[in-house]
Specification:
Subcellular location: Cytoplasm
Mean pLDDT: 91
Strand content: 15-25%
CATH superfamily of the largest domain: Trigger factor, C-terminal domain
Largest sheet: 5 strands, antiparallel
Order of helices and strands: EEHHEEEHEEEEEHHHHHHHEH
Radius of gyration: 33 Å
Number of domains: 3
Distance between the termini: 61 Å
CATH topology of the largest domain: Trigger factor, domain 2
Function: Involved in protein export. Acts as a chaperone by maintaining the newly synthesized protein in an open conformation. Functions as a peptidyl-prolyl cis-trans isomerase.
Number of helices: 11
Helix content: 40-55%
Low-confidence stretches: none
Protein name: Trigger factor
InterPro entries: PPIase_dom_sf, PPIase_FKBP_dom, Trig_fac, Trigger_fac_C, Trigger_fac_C_sf, Trigger_fac_ribosome-bd_bac, Trigger_fac_ribosome-bd_sf, Trigger_fact/SurA_dom_sf
EC number: 5.2.1.8
Length: 436
């Protein structure tokens, strides 16, 4: 087998593979012999069909099948022979034979970049240092009470935080526009659900009152016909309601699975959940900074084929997340540009992390895997069932091991990185990166 490799650009390689004619002929003859044993042709007894007749009828098809299989098998032989590390599937094209019996093909593919992880000591990480205070727990309980709150109609002017029930009609240049009309619409004032000025204009209004609001749509509004447009809303307030927080009672505690229905146990359960959330948030913040630092310190070419594969995965995840799969929504219809930058970064991180794992011969620590599994299972009513399920599902357990291995990479980097402890409040610590 003759193999030649050409570097076309960056990570792309063009490999030409020539398969000896005798290898092809041997494979074709073996296939035809096997066919002759099984084929039934009128006028001939089973197994007694002359090879000349078998070749005439099935020779071309047998050769095509053999060539297809040989292209697949010899591709892997060739990359191993040339010590190449392909990234993604190749594009394989047959080459027109110079003479009868000869066959060759060209496989075009990308290879993984060669990375030697560096710059770990230049990575800066800020690790949140947080103490959960009594007022943090009280604030969390208020949030839970608001989630279970009800609305009670009142006979007074609407204030910020109240819910108003309204009819409204929007006009532009005296004409109604699409989407600018509704009846009996509930609106919480201060929720920023409407364009600027709409909710503010209803503060102080009472049930039965009509308000005319002269407003302007934001310049970056999604509907181009309305972006930056001056409009007028005629709003009729039909009811004003104030929020009634859920009471701290046995019924409320029961909803959150508190066994003895006491306020003390409820607060302890809230604190435990906050500690769990805080621990995960701190891990995520540190991990994000580490991964960003690895990308910044280890610039490299990224195989486009791997980025495209990641884009496809992200498309699938997006469709599943928003329930499009049940409606038969085609993930491919989502523009690749939506995911391009994030997919490229994910692949970049994956390449550097994989090399750190390889260089340091890291494997998932069994004790850490068990600890993570115990922590995950602790939030369920039957923790042991969750643990057993993972341990009896190799694929799920391997995913868990991958997470643990990634955490070990983070620990490895932190041992060399510049780490600064920063004291901050609970809400700031648990807030996702980049969220205002």
């Amino acid at each position: 087998m003759q193999v030649s490799v050409e570097t076309t650009s960056g990570l792309e390689r063009k490999m030409t593979v020539g398969i000896p004619s005798d290898r092809i002929d041997t494979e074709v003859n073996n296939r035809l012999k096997d066919t002759a044993k099984r084929v039934r042709i009128d006028g001939f007894r089973p197994g007694k069909v002359p090879m000349s007749e078998v070749k005439r009828r099935y020779g071309l098809g047998a050769r095509q099948e053999v060539l297809s299989e040989l292209m697949r098998s010899t591709y892997f032989e060739a990359v191993m022979q040339e010590k190449l590390n392909p990234a993604g599937a190749p594009s394989i094209e047959p080459v027109e034979a110079a003479s009868e019996g000869e066959f060759s093909y060209v496989a075009t593919f990308e290879v993984y970049p060669e990375i030697e992880p560096k710059g770990l000591e230049a990575i800066s990480v800020v690790r949140p240092n947080v103490e959960i205070k009594d007022e943090d727990v009280a604030e969390m309980i208020d949030i839970l009470r608001k989630q279970q709150a009800t609305w009670e109609e009142v006979d007074r002017a609407a204030a910020d935080g109240d819910q108003v029930t309204i009819d409204y009609v929007g006009t532009k240049d005296g004409e109604e526009f699409d989407g600018g009309k509704a009846e009996n619409a509930p609106l919480v004032l201060g929720s920023n659900s409407f364009i600027p000025g709409f909710e503010e204009g209803l503060v102080g209004a009472k049930a039965g009152e009509e308000k005319v609001l002269d407003l302007t749509f934001p310049e970056d509004y999604g509907n181009k016909d309305l972006a930056g447009a001056a409009v007028q809303f005629t709003v009729t307030v039909k009811a004003v309601s104030e929020q009634k927080l859920a009471e701290l009672n046995e019924e409320f505690y029961e909803r959150f699975g508190v066994q003895d229905n006491s306020e003390e146990s409820f607060r302890a359960e809230v604190l435990k959940n906050m500690e769990r959330e805080l621990s995960q948030a701190v891990k995520n913040k540190v991990k994000t900074q580490v991964m960003d630092g690895l990308v910044e310190q280890n610039e490299t070419d990224i195989p486009a084929s791997l980025v495209n594969e990641e884009i496809d995965r992200m498309r699938e995840q997006a469709v599943q997340q928003f329930g499009g799969g049940a409606q038969g929504f085609d993930p491919k219809s989502l523009p690749a540009e939506m995911f391009q930058d994030q997919a490229k970064k994910r692949v970049h991180v994956g390449l550097v992390v994989a090399e750190i794992i390889k260089t340091n011969e890291l494997t998932a620590d069994d004790e850490k895997v068990d600890a993570m599994l115990q922590e995950m299972a602790s939030v369920y009513q039957e923790p042991q069932q969750v643990i057993d399920w993972y341990k009896n599902n190799p694929e799920q357990l391997n995913q868990l091991k991958a997470v643990v291995l990634e955490e070990q990479v983070v620990e490895k980097v932190l041992a060399s990185a510049q780490v600064e402890e920063k004291t901050m409040g609970y809400q700031e610590a648990v807030k996702p990166e980049g969220q205002a």
